[in-house]
Design the sequence.
């Protein structure tokens, strides 16, 4: 469905904010670290936010002086000049609700109020002056200028009422005097913060909130997360180190949840595991071991991989009794004993076979026969690794449009995604990770420059 013009404008504006880190290069006159007073305008009621730190990003660029000459920042500037935003001050994008309607907002530090208002509102909008604050409202956009800062709200679903916004803004100002938000103040390039996450998968893992910091490096991104858990026993403390991949694995996720959650996950298996589930324990891993070449037919003859390739999977489950689980499978009429595995059919898929291997401490389920020696079989508290280069290289393209996408992704030379939990304390899970792509002799900004250029060509104001 096409976006409304105002919503597209919001997308353009949010994307343009990212380019300000490049515009900042043209403002090298600003050598002092800017103040963070404008962060007091962040509303107490916000549910989540992103903090962009141009000052530290520019410092990262200064480590590579050759980058400056390669970045043509003029292509990111609007025709009429500056946006009026202080180029090195932190920029906050937040999500909140206004009288039951979801809104997206931003808090910025200003160097020119007039330029900023002209950027947000293309029409001549007259302000409402309340004390020292100028309020601008047009349809579903609203902006308040307070001292040398601004707070902006955008609502996709309704026009913003003047009195509602005034009430909202006053609460934000009052809240700034006794702000109860625990927002990290750091030198990281980007900070993601969520006070409360409401998503089925997140709720399943008993995740309550998180703070994630992201920093640019020569080879990609480094990130650190502090995940707050609703249930202290949601994750069990096991190996607190990075995961490794076997030679047949493209990517792997290993975790140790409570037994009840593991059993619930396995209830989605395409075949019945009731006879064996009493032997299951808490630890699991899931691996992508290639892509399916033949068609996969669901019950009513729907071809699941008609338009895109789906991965072959292997799943490892920790078990308590290898003899007991072997006896259960031998007595199960759906299982056929082979030389070193059991073969089982599924009522959900047509002509599909699944394969069960009983190993020393785990049951291995796979969608194709495997050499278990070519898989990493260890369990972790929470760890994931994906060989992006291998995943893209082995992907089977089904449509011409996919080939274009694959070629575009290849141009960024993706390498690996890797994260793992390195500490678990009571109700907190500490995670660190990396995303690596680009040539080893090329800074991440040089790798991403084509994407900036593509966005600037398609998102023009």
Sequence:
């Amino acid at each position: 469905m096409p976006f409304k013009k105002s919503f597209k404008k919001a997308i353009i504006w949010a994307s343009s904010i990212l380019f300000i880190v490049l515009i900042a290069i043209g403002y090298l006159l600003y050598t002092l670290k800017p103040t963070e007073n404008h962060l007091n305008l962040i509303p107490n009621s916000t549910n989540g936010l992103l903090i962009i730190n141009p000052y530290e990003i520019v410092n990262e660029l200064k480590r590579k002086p050759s980058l400056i000459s390669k970045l043509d920042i003029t292509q990111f500037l609007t025709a009429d000049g500056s946006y009026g935003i202080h180029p090195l001050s932190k920029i906050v994008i937040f999500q909140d609700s206004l009288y039951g309607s979801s809104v997206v907002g931003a808090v910025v530090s200003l160097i020119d109020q007039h330029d900023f208002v002209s950027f947000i509102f293309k029409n001549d909008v007259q302000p409402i002056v309340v004390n020292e604050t100028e309020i601008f409202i047009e349809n579903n956009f609203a902006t308040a200028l307070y001292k040398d800062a601004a707070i902006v709200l955008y609502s996709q679903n309704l026009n913003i009422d003047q009195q509602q916004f005034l009430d909202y803004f006053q609460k934000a100002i009052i809240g700034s005097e006794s702000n109860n938000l625990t927002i990290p103040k750091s030198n990281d390039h980007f900070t993601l913060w969520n006070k409360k996450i409401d998503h089925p998968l997140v709720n399943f893992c008993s995740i309550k909130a998180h703070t994630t910091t992201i920093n640019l490096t020569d080879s990609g991104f480094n990130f650190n997360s502090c995940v707050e858990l609703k249930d202290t026993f949601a994750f069990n403390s096991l190996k607190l180190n990075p995961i490794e991949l076997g030679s047949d694995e493209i990517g792997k996720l290993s975790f140790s949840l409570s037994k009840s959650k593991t059993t619930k996950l396995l209830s989605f298996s395409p075949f019945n595991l009731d006879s064996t589930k009493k032997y299951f324990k808490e630890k699991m891993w899931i691996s992508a071991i290639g892509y399916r070449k033949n068609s996969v037919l669901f019950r009513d003859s729907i071809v699941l991989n008609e338009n895109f390739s789906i991965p072959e999977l292997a799943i490892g489950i920790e078990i308590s009794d290898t003899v007991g689980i072997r006896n259960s499978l031998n007595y199960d009429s759906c299982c056929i004993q082979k030389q070193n595995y059991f073969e089982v059919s599924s009522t959900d898929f047509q002509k599909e076979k699944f394969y069960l291997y009983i190993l020393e401490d785990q049951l291995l389920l796979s969608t194709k026969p495997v050499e278990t020696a070519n898989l990493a079989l260890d369990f972790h508290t929470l760890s994931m690794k994906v060989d992006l280069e291998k995943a893209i290289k082995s992907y089977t393209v089904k449509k011409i449009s996919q080939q274009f996408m694959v070629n575009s992704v290849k141009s960024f030379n993706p390498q690996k995604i890797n994260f793992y939990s390195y500490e678990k304390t009571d109700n907190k899970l500490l995670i660190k990770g990396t995303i690596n792509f680009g040539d080893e002799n090329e800074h991440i900004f040089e790798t991403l420059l084509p994407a900036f250029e593509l966005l600037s060509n398609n998102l023009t104001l």
